[in-house]
Amino acid sequence: MSEYEKLGHMSIAQPKPNEASFYFPHHGVLKEESVSTKLRVVFDGSASSTSGFSLNDLQMVGPTIQPDLISILLRFRKGLYAISADIEKMYRQVLINPEQRQLQMILWRPDPTESIKQYNLNTVTYGTSSASFLAIRSLIQIGMENEISNPDIAKIIKNDFYVDDLLTSTDDLEKAKYLCNTLPKILATGCFALRKWISNEPEVLSGIKLSDKHPNVLNVGSNENIKTLGLMWSGKTDSLTFKISHSQQRKVTKRIILSETAQIFDPLGLLGACTISAKIVLQDLWREKLDWDESVSNALFERWSRFREQLPILNNLRVPRHAICKNPKRIEMHGFCKCLWSMYLHTFYRS
């Protein structure tokens, strides 16, 4: 919170009695595995006020204006040289209209011995319904403003960011180096700073400061507030891997099975041959017509337990990130499909 005040992301409020206002509840969240910020502050825009409504109830969310993650990842796997980076404190680089900051107020004191003070949050706040749209729209605006002067960089800004994560690739080494040298300068015009750079080719990052480089593993599509059994990319080996842990077995219910199945983050379907087992269990759960928190039958319990115990084996899986061979003369795609009583199967192979 002190950092918020130091950076000008919040300031002492001067509330006006006749103006609508909203106060955010807030608390800290400790994330031990985070490389940059282990303790983060979380603001609750969904908490109801005395009116019975929350700020999020009254906000327009805004449309989805970035490409979907699958499209971004497919392009990321296309080029020989892969590049990733992260926009530092993306949401907090976008200022809110001063006339609306009374809708983003908090109560805080830096020390228990001091009086509680009222603050305005001056920037887009993570936890509000419109936050993603406002931050992403600001990023895309930079791309639009550079379409004539630098069309290649503009295209990357508009198409190769997933919220604050850059995921792009190219077959041209010089183009990759140009991107790493030019993109930070262009984004800096909008107060966006890139950090945590990763590439499978060290020469690509030759112009990047050591302090701005990241350890060579990226958690793809991660959310700081959501635990996923994640898809990882190692720049050192240029391979996609999975980080899956075996949790302690609890009472097994339909709610728990659905929750744990949804946590397996596999946007490209690389684990489809494995996760289909969990989906078939879900089909059978619905046939049994169980309540959400009712224990499953012994047969389903055994099937789910075997599946869950074997999941960590997937940590040994290594999938090459680069999906296209170098300088191909001809590429052939071969597709196969099969229909079974419980599923449809289809797969494609490149040659």
Automatic annotation (TrEMBL):
GO terms for biological process: DNA biosynthetic process. CDD domains: RT_pepA17. InterPro entries: DNA/RNA_pol_sf, Retrotrans_Pao. It holds the Pfam family Peptidase_A17. SUPFAM superfamilies: DNA/RNA polymerases. This is Reverse transcriptase domain-containing protein. It comes from Photinus pyralis (Common eastern firefly).
